Amino acid sequence: MAATNTARTSSLLSVFPALKRLERALGGERIGQAAMLDSLFSDERLQRLERLAAERRTEFDALDFVGQLRLDSGRALWGPEVLHSKMLAWLLDPNESHGIGSRFLTSFLVQAGAPQASQPVDWSAAEVAREWLNQVEDQWGYLDVLVVNEAERVLCAIEIKTFSNEHDEQLTRYRVALEDAYPTFTRYHVFLTPWGTKPFDAEERARWTPLTYSTVFSIIQSVAEDDDEPLTTDVRAFLRQYATTLRRNLMPDTSVSQLARRIWLEHREAIELLIKHQPNWVAETTRILEKAIVKQPEWKLDLQSNSRIRFRSVEWNQFESWHSGTNWAPGSNALFLCEFTFGKSSLPYFRIALAGGNGSHDRLRERLFESVRQHPQLFRLKSTSLSDGWNLLHSDEDYILDVADYGVEWDDGTTRAKLEAWVADFAAKRFPAMNDVIVGCLREHEADQKASESD
Fold first, then answer.
1. In 250-354, where does DSSP find H-type helix?
2. How many other β-carbons are positioned within 10 Å of the β-carbon of residue 384?
3. How far apart are alpha carbons 282 and 297 in whole angstroms?
4. 140-162 pLDDT tens trace
5. How many CB atoms are closer than 10 A to CB 51?
6. CB 103 within 8 A of CB 220
7. Which of 174, 263, 380, 404 is most buried, by CB atoms within 10 Å?
């Protein structure tokens, strides 16, 4: 049979030259993909990225910690340029509360190419402004930081970027605005970026000095670690923390985000190929759980959704009061259902959801809630009182899987076996007692209903 199939294929390829070209094209594509992946995996920066990521888990960064609260923009605290413009303006101002006078200012200006900075010049009267408002040809702009020394007729303009690029010819407009506002001043222009990016425009490249956050880091380090510098304990600690933030987040050789960004840009096609073939954890876990539920003779699958696998005990269906629920999608009037849903990192966990009632069996909802409350060894309630709409009669505190289960174990059957074993164990050991409480409520409620109707 194999020989026959080979002969047929050879015959087709000889008859249809286009198929030969397609075969070669597909072969070339596979070779190209293999080459891309090989280039990615042989990049030594991957090991450095892994090492930096491991270090982040043990090194404390106060600004990064606070940044986990996130800003309105959804970006980490250290991401927006406003943080760094504020920090620079504070450090560059000789009269600010840091107590280092003009030391940071003069060091920064030397890096910006200002020879006056290293001369015995009095910088104590220099003024620093943030968001310097300017207008060129009816277009408004805000230069991030402007340092002006009126006495020496010198200024330094600083435009800051973290992850964005220059836009709308802003560097040209800022330079022109400064020429108009300070025509007799010696002007130094600094473009501060993680990578020392040069301006787009060729003319501006000759007028703006590209600096990196590594430069800022080095100056801060030299100040913070200088025991002769008259710094308070708080200021020294704060400078060290900011230096840590720069090193971890905005310096290409030591920043996880910057290094990962550069690797992505250089190996984009290979990484996108990997992403294209990444497992869909939720969808694949859902299929495994559905099959595991079907194997349980006392359970029956119910209303499904993209991220929830709902099922019920076969006993519940016999009770008319159980069919009084609302709030579910069309097609289900269940008063409550069991479900597996997904939490952090797409990890599944179990819970029992109580829907709103149609009013005919409100007493049952109250009885269920109270019975569950009286069995804390079986159920974990999520609230102390029953609401009119959705309630969780139970929600597991533990995930069924660990993040480690989404590794190579995913394809070798280990994770599937773990899920199936959890479901089987839960169905045999935990669920029966929970079900007894629930079924007891249903029976009592319907017995009370019949008694009431017969009176």
1. 256-266, 268-276, 281-294
2. 6
3. 25
4. 889 999 999 998 899 999 999 98
5. 11
6. no
7. 174
